[in-house]
Design brief:
about 130 residues, Recombination endonuclease VII
Length: about 130
């Protein structure tokens, strides 16, 4: 029986001609790659291309247009998140995690976002006055 090269466990996939991993079990193989920055960025970019139907050049062009900053807050993008319309599926731009999360929680509802902005403005005026 094959054993994992990392821990010696026996959870190694059988080599049926499709297994290119060698003697690594699934658990240790999956943990190996997130630590490899080059692999991570290539895999992320490939995921983005498939998910949003845009090419590498278009993705990089969006990032370049935005100077690698978030479209909403203007902060630098450590990990860019593609913002897209959930109705049409079209890409709108690239956001930081916080802004992407915020839009998602407001369900892209303009009335709800306007109400939240109004609330913040009114509460600021009450604090000062």
């Amino acid at each position: 029986m094959k054993q994992c090269e990392v821990k010696g466990c026996s959870n190694v996939a059988r080599n049926n001609g499709h297994n290119k991993r060698g003697k690594l079990c699934e658990t240790h193989h999956r943990r190996k790659y997130p630590r490899n920055a080059v692999y991570y960025h290539r895999a992320r970019e490939a995921h983005v291309l498939r998910l949003y139907g845009i090419g590498k050049q278009e993705y990089r062009s969006i990032l370049k247009k935005q100077s690698n900053n978030c479209s909403i807050c203007g902060n630098g993008l450590d990990k860019p998140y593609i913002d897209h319309c959930h109705t049409s599926g079209k890409v709108r731009g690239v956001l930081c995690n916080a802004c992407n999360w915020g839009l998602g929680h407001f369900k892209e509802d303009l009335d709800l976002l306007a109400a939240a902005a109004s609330y913040l403005i009114n509460s600021r005026l009450k604090e000062v006055g």
